[in-house]
Every structure is written in structure tokens, then in C-alpha cells.
């Protein structure tokens, strides 16, 4: 991080004086560091939220000055991430650094120490090196060759962003890095990796690949990219705030007591918490360190007596938070985590840690310190996945308000699209603005997918100036979006006909819809995993020789990650069963490359079903959370059976009843037509 | 084995003279050993088939003498297996032997060196020790305690057969032996096991359990039960005969060439074949060493050049078989297997062997000899599972003839049941007799399950004198049976109403039937595994809060095992996908304890479906093999949708068309009523 010299900027002196007048004791250096950290965090829904970290209460003049200082820090960021495409000089610099370290190659995954989906700017090493900005991928850089591995979602994006002459592109699933390394590393070559950025399990697989090639896998002490990345952003700074118990539905103390029981059940003394969403859930706090998910990046050690030691930048704690967390929760700097792991070893503790979820570095450190490892999943993951009644009440409320925003949006599309000027970007902006009118809205839950015509067939399409399309008559428009609300996270996809859809579009849309209905109405016994019921949503497509190349559903958090494990509904087997209180999406689709895409997505809650008459076993079933009309102009009623028509009519009647009263009259009139009975 | 002295029996001298006159050179000792071996094999469909092993051609006088000699050998068997219930003296003898060996305990699984479902008498150690005769279970014998672990199918059987005061009974799945050992072994105790009777994987799990308890798991050189079991049967002797290529559909040479390619693909030199059904498939031979499945027990080593070394009792080879096998197949005694494994080590071979399918003993021997292990499944298993067109043609023909026998049986039941005297045992005998009229029939494929009334609710019920019930008016009769025919293996379950069924019976039968139809009509993409489609057969039961506690379907062999892997359709995940040519059962059911059982089972073939118009992806679908009417008096047509009724009518029309012409007029008249359109 570059540091300007003191007094370089007159405006900073004025700001410091204003801060001091407001009772703040922040120094010039401290302010600069906070500003750099804030500039390294995503902007967030309220761009002034961070100011509490330097002045608990700020008047409008101070706020204006802080806003300007922040704008300057953002403008001065110069971390090289805003450049489109790749800079070959960076690859050359990395190779030089590797030579200096005596390494023949290095693995660059897309990820940070917490191994989640979204990362702060500082951890965007893969994007900085290769220009590839997808949320999943891995590069291997050798002396003469470099390869980027991305999955099917990102093939097109990687082709557009990465110069194939310098970096080859491979399919992450079909040609996984392990296989490629086993046949492309030479004997005695040394391949480096950053042990903070890979799970223990990944490293075992990579080490086997290296051994097969007669090569060696070597952990580096410090990531070589951090040495060559000029102006690499510092760790992000965003305020960590309490998540009110009225939303969380359970106190942190109660959660910690339940976690302590689980730790004891597993015959461990201490659990290592790596996932920031586990931490946010456990402590009932939310942060703003990464895009789209309100995470505060930190590690924790939770013990079997209910105490939690948190390793997190103390400057990020909103005023009063430390006290609110209570005596059982201690916050220490991130740097102290290593020593804490060592202490677990010297105290001969039995430590619960997840080989598939924790960095290899944590395992090495614990082993070297002599700790006894109990390998197992982070118990918070499953506890968090099963929402309590408070969270479910919040989810229902959030979905009603989200449904209102979506109804206004769809009614607007219905008016605007026929004019011919509406674009994907225009739609995305409008939808976000409508959601933002809600007092509890805190930002989009992910980058909205708004695919008009052929763009709808790109499953993880993300609109840009280059690809932006108009909504044309006779085409379909697919919009997949969600909101982070204090009381819940939403995720909904609707496909809209612009003008008159073709018979084929209606037929395929109806097959997709039959899958939605079949899954939404399914009852299933406890112990059922998602892979067992995934086919229920696909069979009407399979009948016609069609399918979709993505999962049917993912878990969803409660004002947390829109993609949350462990549950999922997909072809891929995942051993954790669906349980009462889990929220999952169901989003079957159909994609005709170069023509159109169809997807209908609702969120569902897994619920224990009351015992029906004659029933012998307790069954689980789904409650639909999403309250957004399904475009009837795309439904071919002749292809639905009587039960399916009854379901669709009942769903629409419920949508009309639950969101109708909150709508303006124009939208309400639209809603009446949109939810008419078939 | 006890041996009578030479000349002890006058009749043997006469027999030897008759044999010599017929050109046989068998000595008195040799004859005695063969007779003992034949008596240790199951009786088989043709009780004189074994005589070719001592006299290639025998006149009727010689045959009569051989039959008498065989009868005497069976009568003299005295191996203690025909005693019902347990003999506590055996447990005491085992404990004394363990003390002599310095062991604190021993594990007694139900299985032999080939680790399959059916075993020869010699390997019935668990039954001999505990009295428990189920096909799956494990006992652990310690100094003071002994425990028998059986799964839910056998809970009742174990209670009836085993004295709980001497041997505790536990649930194999809920309280697996590993967990029990971990908490019940004392520190420094030594637990013995026979490394021929456990897979490498099982031993790893058991060893971990012992380590957790501070105890030690020790492989014994010889099974202590074999030392204390007086008159333990010798290895079985039954003729190994060629399986005609018109049934096998592919020459052994062609199969061996394909296997050689697979071995080379896996970068191995040699594959260890442990499963006798793999061996039977690979060599196109069939034997008679175990009940219900025409297996010849033996091991084999197949190499990447197409050569196969077989380790099998050479006396069991039918005349001419060695020559028929050709120069690429060498048959050596079973004893030579150990040395052959050592040779693989000394020749530095890369050996493909399955940790989940081969005895731990094979791994130890190979490792000690210095062989390089390539861990992976026996390739024969998957190759065998995908039937060729010749086998499928045979399966269709066998199912037509089996359908004829079943139609005659069902028509007979229809006439007899109302008289009130018909019992489960009477039905089983009649059905087997009807099947036996077919020239290609070679015996039942498994012990017929014939459950009248409440016995139908016992999923793996096996009728005995003690449990035999009459078919009563107002009850259901469930019959699950199958035949081994030279051209295919059948397995069919039908549930019949005796008199007027109740509304509940009809409703539940119809839910089960809807599951059959849903699965039979499913199309699914390549790569789909059984666990993904199992729910398709269950959802109509789930709807009503019902379910069945067994898999939906198992693989079926071609004149081989009626239970054959790797494919299955079940809740339990199994990673091998369903492939073109695989035969699977589909057998959803419903069981009301103490009242009745319902199951409808057809065999299906997985087939590539022709591309439909508009289809984008190749799909697999099922062809129904079984041709047996479904009892229409149990079908509640109002609960079926139009497509389901159309399927049932089309199925019945096909049954009538395919088997009607082969029936006598009385049965044909019954068939016409039984297959009438709804």
C-alpha cells in the first residue's frame, strides 16, 4: 500500500479538525488507513455507513467531508483491477518472482482465506493476473505455459477476457488441474501454492497429481503475487454491525450454547470457524467486506464451553458492538489467529476442523503445534441452514415486499417493452431502484442476470455495455435477481414474453413449469437428499429429449449468502439431507443457444408436513416463498393436467391476495390480469 | 473331512467296477472325494449332472449306482448345518480355540473368499456357529460376550434362530460392528479376523475402530472355525460347463480382448478377478457351487494381452471344457493362487484390484510380494452389466416362457384359492413345477417369497412349515419368484387379491402401480444414476405419507446372479450410472405390518431411446421384459390418469399378444379376462 506523506493534502487537515471537533480521536495515519480499507471494500448500499468507524455521530458537514475523502480514496485506488483484459507484464513479473523463489510454477485459484464465493478486491489475484473476472477458476503458471481452468458457465467470458496466446484455457470439470498437472509437470519440478487459498482436501489431490508426475508441491510462506502487485488493495474495511434478534430469531448466546453442544458431541474441545457466513450467523452480526453478501471477514475459534474468540480487524467494529457481543466473545486482530492455533496445540486440544472447508495452512499449523484434529464439517453450516421461525417469518415478509417490487417491475416491463427502446441494462436499473424503495433493502443479492433473446440462453449471463440488448418483439426476456433485506434474502427468476411467443417457446416454458410444480408439490421422507428429487423437476424436459446444465436448486441464507450450503437440489450427490427450515431455490430451465432462455425460479422452505389421514410416516414438503406472477402468455394450458392447473391458479390467487393490497392501482390492475385463473 | 477306509463298503466296489467297465479311471479315493464334494454343493436342477465328472458317458445302470452313491454321501454328510437353531458347544469351542491362539475375540462374517451373496456349505461358518441362516450378518465373539449384527430384513429371523442369552443381537446399520467394537473392545485386546473373508476396505474400517479402542486387529493364517468344525464340508464339486455363445452373445475371446483393453487403459498389467460371476461371464462358463446362481467358484488373473489364468478345482471341469476354453486360458488348482500373486510381485507387475471387492488377504499378499497396486473396480462387473443383443434376445425369450408359466400359475391360483385349502408352500411348489416344464429352466433364481396375508408384509419372508399360511378370502397374496433359464434370469413379483379386496388395499396397490408406471415410462439422460430416479417410483406413496424400506430396483444377470451390480435404483447413492443394456428390476411396494404386503415387480432393460422430434439430447429409457398380468381387481382406475390407464392397457395387450398363443385354452381364457382393457 502506498502512503502519502503527512500534510500532503490540505483538505485532510481540515477533515481531521472537523473530526476532532466532533469528538473523534482518529489520527491522520489512522484515517488514511481506514479510507484505503473502505475503498478496498465494495461500495455498499449506504455509502456513508463506514463513517461510524471514525465518528460515532457525524453532522452533515462532517459527512460531506468524509464522503469527499472517500471519493478521493476510491479515485486514487489504482490497484489495476479496473483495467479490462489482461496485462502481460504481470504474468512476466510473476514468472520472475517464481524464479527468484526457486519455483517452476504456481497455482492461482480464485479465492481468499475464507474459501467462499465472493472475495474482497485484495484477493482478486486471478483477475489481476489474467483479466478473468468470473467467480470460479484456477490458473496454473509454469515457466513457458500458463493455463486457466474455468467451468462451462465461464467459457465465453474467459475467451473474451483472456489472451489465449499467453494463457491457454481449459474446462475445469473435463480437464481438471490435477489431471493436467499430472501429465504436464516435468520430473523434479517444484510447483508452489498459497496454503491459505486451498482446502486441505484440494491440496491432497494436487499433491497426488504432482507425485504422479515426479514433481513436488510446495507451500509458500507469502503469496508471490502480493509481492509483485503494486497497489494491491489492503484488507477491506466496512462496519460490522449487530443483526437484530428480531431478524435473527435466536440470540447469539443461544446459538453458541447449541454449537458448544455439537462440539462436545463430536468429542472436540474447539471448532475452527473459517466461513464468514458461519461467523455472521453465530454472532448475529453482518458486515460489508465483499459484494452482495453482508459478510465481515474473520476467523473464529469456538469452544465447547460456549466461548468464541474472533479474529477480525478491530477497527471494523461499529461503535458499541464489542460490548453488545458480551463477555463470552473476544475480538482479536486477524494476525493473532496463528498464535491461537499454536496455543490449541500446546494445550493439547482436540480441534474440529473441516478438510473440505478450511485452508491447508490451518491444518499444517495445528498439526505442527501438536493439536489433535477431529475432521468434520463446521457445525454452524447445518445449524444456519435450518432457519428458525423468526427467520422464516422474516423471509415471508421480505418475499411479500420483494413481490411488490417485482410486480411493479413486471407491470412496467409490460408497458415499456412494446415501445421497443427498453434494454437489459435499463431493466436492471429499474428493478434495483424499485427494490431500493424498501426501508429494509440492503442491496442486490447477486449481479442481476437480465438476458434478452439469445442472451437469455447464456446461463450466467451478466449484462455489460458491450452485450446490452434491446427487448425485441417475439423474443423472451429472462430476469434472475434477488435482494438482500434485513429480514431475508430473495432470489427469483421470471421469463417474460415480449409480444407473441412462438408455439415452441410456450411448449418448452410449460415443460419447465411442470417441473416447478412437481417439485413444489412433492412430499418426501426425512433423510432425503437433493440429488434424489432433482429428477422430479426435470422429467417433463427429459420426456422431450431436453435438459438444463445446472442444478435445480441451491440453499439460500437469511440476509446472508444467496448461495448457501450444505443443501442443494442437483444431479450431483451431496450427502446432507433436506431438513425442516431449510430454504432452497427451485429453478429448472431450458436454453436454446442463440435463440432464447427460459427459467422459472421460486424459493421454497422445507417444512414438516402435518400427518395426513392414513399417513404412516412424517413427511417433509415445500412452502413457496416467492410471490411473483408467472407469465400466463407462455403457459400452454393444454399441456397441464388438472392438478397442475389447480396449483397454478391457487398460486396466482395467493400472489394476488398477498401483494395486491400493497400495490398502486395501475399495478394492481396489471396484477389482476397477470394472476387470472386458467 | 472324515474318510472311510478302503473296501469298507461293498457297494462302492461294485460301483468302481461298473465305472471301470464304462472306461472311467477314477480310483476309490478319488470317487470318495468327488462324492463328498458333490454332497457339499447344492443339489442342482439335474441331480445327475455331476456324473460326467467321473464318467463322461454313463448308461442307466451306472447312473443308478452313482445316484445311490450320491444319496449315501448326502445322508452321511453330518456337517451340523441341518440342525435348527444354535449349539452352544460350538461357541465354547471357538472361545477355547481363540484362547489357544492368544486372541481375545474373532469376527465371523457371513461370506466366503468371493464375497458374494450366496456361499457353499463349507463357508456357512456363521450359520454353524450361531444358527442364523440369513444371507447377510456378522458375529463378533469376545471372551464373555458375543454379538450378532443383522439388518432389518433379518431381525425376526435372528430372534427366532439365535439364543439371545448367549449371543446379543444388534442392528447392522444402526449399530454397525465398527462402532460397537470401538466402544466395547478393551485396551490392548487382540481381535482376530480371517483376511480371506473381508474386503480391504472393511478391514481398514475395522482397524480404525480397533485403534480407537486401543485394541489390535490381527489377521489369522487359518480360520479357527475350520479347526473346530468337525465334518466341515469340503469345497463343493459341481460340473463347470460351457455357456453356449448363442446365449452369451459374445465369445469369451472377444470379452477377454475387451477386458485386456480396459486393463491397459487403467495402466495395469494384470487384473485380479475375485467374483465368480465375473469369471463365469468372462469365460462363458457356468457352474453349480452355490444355491440359485450358476457359479463355479474360482479366482482368475487376467492380463493386458488377453490371457487368463484361472484358479479352480480342475476336477470340476466337464469333459472337454479345458480344450474348449482354448490356449489363452489356463486352469490351475486354487492352491496355486497364492504363488501366482507372489509371482506378480516378483515380476514387478501393476495389478488392478478392488479394495471394495477383493479380500484383504489378496492385498497383503500382493503388497508383500512387491506388486504395484492399481486400485479400481473389476472391469468385468460393468461390462457384464451391459447386456449385448444376444443376451437381450435371450432375456426376452426367457421372459415370454416365464410369463407362460406365471400365467398358468396365476390362472391356477384363481381357480384354487377360492376353495380355501391352498397354502403358501403349495403355491411355491406348483410355480416351480410349472417353470420346470421349460427345457431351458435350470432352477429358481432365489428362494421364492410367497406371503399370504400378514406374511406378505415381511419383506424378505421365506415360507417354512412353521409359518405356512392358507390363502384366505379377503386377503392379499404376494409372490416374488424367478427362474434361471439358460437364456436369461427372471424375477417377478405380483400381488393377488383373494376374493374381494378392501378399498384401502386397492388404493395402496394403485399408488404402488403408479410408481411402476412412472419409472417404466421415464426417459433420462446418460450419466444418470439410480439414486436420482428412485423417487420417481415413490412419490405417489410419499404423497400419502407412505413408503417402502427397500430399494426400488437391483441389477439382474443373464443366467447369472439375480442380484447383480453395479447398477441399482435405490435411495442409497451408487456412482455407476445406468447404461444401455443393463437389466434392472423395478419393485415398489407397500407393507402394512400384521395385515398385508403389496409389491409389483417387473424387470426392465435400459435402452437408448431413438431421438424424438425436437429432442436435443440422447436419452435412455426402459423396455419392460416381464410379461405377467397385473391383478386388475386391485387397480382403482379412478386414481390413474389417462396416460397411466393407456400404459396399463397397452402393457396388458402386449402380454396377451406375446404369451397368449403359447397357452392352453383354459389359461388363455383366463388371460383374456386378466388383460382386459380398463
What would your notes on this structure say?
2 copies of one chain form a homodimer. Chain A contains 22 helices and 28 strands. The first copy, chain A, has a 6-stranded mixed beta sheet. In chain A, helix 17 packs across helix 22. The longest helix of chain A is centred in the middle third of the chain and has 28 residues, at 389-416. Mean pLDDT of chain A is 95; it is low at 1-9. The A-B interface holds A 504, 522-525, 527-529, 531-536, 539, 542-547, 571, 573, 575, 609, 611-612, 614-619, 641 and B 504, 522-525, 527-529, 531-536, 539, 542-547, 571, 573, 575, 609, 611-612, 614-619, 641.
State the oligomer: homodimer
Strand order in the largest sheet of chain A: 4-3-2-1-5-6
Q: For the CA atoms, what is the radius of gyration of chain A?
A: 26 Å
Number of strands of chain A: 28
Shape estimate of chain A = globular
Main β-sheet of chain A: number of strands, strand sense, barrel status? 6 strands, mixed
User: Helix/strand/pairing class of chain A, anyone?
Assistant: alpha+beta
Number of H/I helices of chain A: 22
Amino acid at each position: 500500500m502506498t502512503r502519502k506523506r503527512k500534510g500532503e493534502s490540505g483538505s485532510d487537515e481540515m477533515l481531521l479538525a472537523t473530526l476532532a471537533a466532533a469528538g473523534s480521536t482518529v489520527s491522520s495515519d489512522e484515517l488514511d488507513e481506514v479510507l484505503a480499507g473502505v475503498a478496498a471494500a465494495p461500495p455498499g448500499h449506504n455509502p456513508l455507513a463506514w463513517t461510524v468507524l471514525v465518528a460515532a455521530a457525524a453532522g452533515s458537514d462532517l459527512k460531506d467531508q468524509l464522503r469527499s475523502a472517500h471519493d478521493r480514496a476510491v479515485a486514487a485506488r489504482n490497484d489495476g483491477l479496473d483495467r479490462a483484459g489482461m496485462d502481460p507484464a504481470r504474468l512476466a513479473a510473476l514468472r520472475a518472482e517464481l524464479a527468484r523463489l526457486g519455483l517452476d510454477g504456481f497455482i492461482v485459484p480464485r479465492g481468499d482465506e475464507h474459501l467462499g464465493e465472493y472475495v474482497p478486491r485484495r484477493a482478486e489475484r486471478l483477475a489481476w493476473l489474467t483479466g478473468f473476472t468470473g467467480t470460479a477458476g484456477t490458473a496454473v503458471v509454469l515457466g513457458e505455459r500458463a493455463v486457466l481452468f474455468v467451468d462451462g458457465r465461464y467459457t465465453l467470458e474467459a475467451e473474451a477476457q483472456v489472451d489465449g496466446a499467453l494463457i491457454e484455457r481449459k474446462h475445469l470439470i473435463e480437464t481438471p488441474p490435477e489431471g493436467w498437472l499430472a501429465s504436464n509437470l516435468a520430473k523434479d519440478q517444484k510447483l508452489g501454492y498459497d496454503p491459505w487459498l486451498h482446502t486441505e482436501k484440494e491440496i491432497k489431490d494436487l499433491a497426488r497429481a504432482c507425485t504422479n508426475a515426479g514433481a513436488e508441491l510446495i507451500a509458500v510462506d507469502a503469496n508471490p503475487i502480493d509481492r509483485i502487485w503494486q497497489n494491491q488493495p489492503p484488507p477491506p474495511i466496512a462496519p460490522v454491525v449487530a443483526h437484530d434478534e428480531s431478524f435473527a430469531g435466536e440470540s447469539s448466546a443461544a446459538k453458541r450454547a447449541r454449537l458448544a453442544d455439537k462440539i462436545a458431541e463430536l468429542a472436540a474441545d474447539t471448532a475452527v470457524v473459517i466461513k464468514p457466513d458461519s461467523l455472521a450467523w453465530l454472532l448475529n452480526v453482518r458486515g460489508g467486506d465483499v459484494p452482495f453478501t453482508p459478510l465481515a471477514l474473520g476467523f473464529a475459534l469456538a469452544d465447547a464451553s460456549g466461548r468464541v474468540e474472533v479474529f477480525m480487524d478491530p477497527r471494523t467494529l461499529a461503535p458499541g458492538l464489542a460490548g453488545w457481543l458480551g463477555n463470552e466473545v473476544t475480538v482479536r486482530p486477524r494476525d493473532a489467529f496463528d498464535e491461537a492455533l499454536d496455543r490449541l496445540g500446546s494445550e493439547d486440544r482436540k480441534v474440529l476442523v473441516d478438510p473440505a472447508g478450511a485452508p491447508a495452512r490451518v491444518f499444517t499449523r495445528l498439526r505442527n503445534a501438536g493439536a489433535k484434529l477431529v475432521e468434520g464439517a463446521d457445525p454452524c453450516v447445518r445449524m444456519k441452514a435450518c432457519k428458525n421461525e423468526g427467520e422464516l417469518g422474516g423471509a415471508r415478509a421480505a418475499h411479500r415486499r420483494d413481490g411488490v417490487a417485482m410486480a411493479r417491475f413486471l407491470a412496467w416491463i409490460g408497458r415499456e417493452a412494446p415501445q421497443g427502446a427498453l434494454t437489459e441494462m435499463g431493466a436492471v436499473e429499474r428493478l434495483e431502484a424499485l427494490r431500493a424503495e424498501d426501508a429494509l433493502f440492503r442491496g442486490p443479492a447477486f449481479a442481476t442476470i437480465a438476458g434478452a433473446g439469445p442472451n437469455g440462453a447464456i446461463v450466467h449471463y451478466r449484462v455489460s455495455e458491450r452485450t446490452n440488448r434491446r427487448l425485441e418483439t417475439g423474443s423472451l426476456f429472462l430476469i434472475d435477481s434477488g435482494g438482500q433485506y434485513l429480514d431475508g434474502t430473495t432470489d427469483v427468476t421470471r421469463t417474460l414474453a415480449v409480444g407473441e411467443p412462438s408455439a415452441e417457446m410456450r411448449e418448452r416454458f410449460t415443460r419447465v413449469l411442470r417441473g416447478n410444480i412437481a417439485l413444489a408439490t412433492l412430499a418426501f421422507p426425512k433423510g432425503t437428499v437433493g440429488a434424489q428429487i432433482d429428477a422430479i423437476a426435470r422429467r417433463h424436459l427429459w420426456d422431450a429429449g431436453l435438459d438444463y446444465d445446472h442444478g435445480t436448486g441451491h440453499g439460500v441464507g437469511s440476509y446472508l449468502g444467496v448461495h448457501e450450503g450444505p443443501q442443494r437440489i442437483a444431479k450431483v450427490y451431496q450427502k446432507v439431507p433436506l431438513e425442516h427450515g431449510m430454504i432452497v431455490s427451485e429453478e429448472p430451465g431450458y436454453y436454446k443457444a442463440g435463440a432464447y432462455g427460459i427459467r422459472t425460479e421460486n424459493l421454497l422452505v422445507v417444512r414438516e408436513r402435518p400427518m395426513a389421514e392414513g399417513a404412516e410416516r412424517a413427511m417433509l414438503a415445500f412452502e413457496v416463498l416467492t410471490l411473483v406472477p408467472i407469465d400466463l402468455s407462455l403457459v400452454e394450458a393444454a399441456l397441464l393436467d388438472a392438478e397442475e392447473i389447480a396449483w397454478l391458479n391457487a398460486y396466482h390467487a395467493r400472489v394476488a391476495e398477498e401483494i395486491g393490497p400493497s400495490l398502486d392501482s395501475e399495478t394492481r390492475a396489471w396484477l389482476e390480469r397477470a394472476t387470472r385463473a386458467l
